[in-house]
Amino acid sequence: MATTVHTGNNQNFSYTNNTGGNVRVVISLALNDTSVQASTNGIKIRCGAPGSPDILQANSGTNSRFNGIGKNIARQGGSNHSGHFVGASASSDVDCMCTEFYLADGHSIDVQGVSLSYPLKFYNILTIPE
To answer: pTM for this one?
Structure first.
């Protein structure tokens, strides 16, 4: 089987591995809605066996924004007018988010907005059968 590129706008991503083997997943880019600066805006990832809990989550805050994740993303930092940090790692309660990992046969992944009101603004995710 060949690599599949999954791309979407204003929707969340969900994939279940039914290839009969392992699949490598590469999150090239997943952006949340940066027009909203609230804790209901962010990205969460769930992967593994059916029923697995969310394993990673990053939210925007009152004075900071979490913009998104991706493999080989250049991080832009700076300050907004109130002196609060704005950038890809503005949320202080996130240590890391995986952008490449493997799924066993029958396992799945969901990459979605923290709130149903704010789905992913854009995503580009690869699934590569191994």
So the answer is: 0.74
| Per-residue pLDDT tens over the stretch 59-106 | 665 555 566 666 766 554 444 444 444 344 444 444 466 788 899 999
Look up the CATH number of domain 4-72+85-129. Answer: 2.60.120
CA distance 7 to 63: 30
Match 């769930």 to its residue by tokens. 46
Answer for the pair 17, 103: CB distance below 8 angstroms, yes or no: yes
Helix (H), strand (E), coil (C) string for the chain? CCCEEEEEECCCEEEECCCCCCEEEEEEEEECCCCCCCCCCEEEEEEECCCCCCCEEEECCCCCCCCEECCCCCCCCCECCCCCECCCCCCCCCCCCCCEEEECCCCEEEEEECCCCCCCCEEEEEEEEC
For β-strands 108-113 and 13-16, DSSP reports them as antiparallel
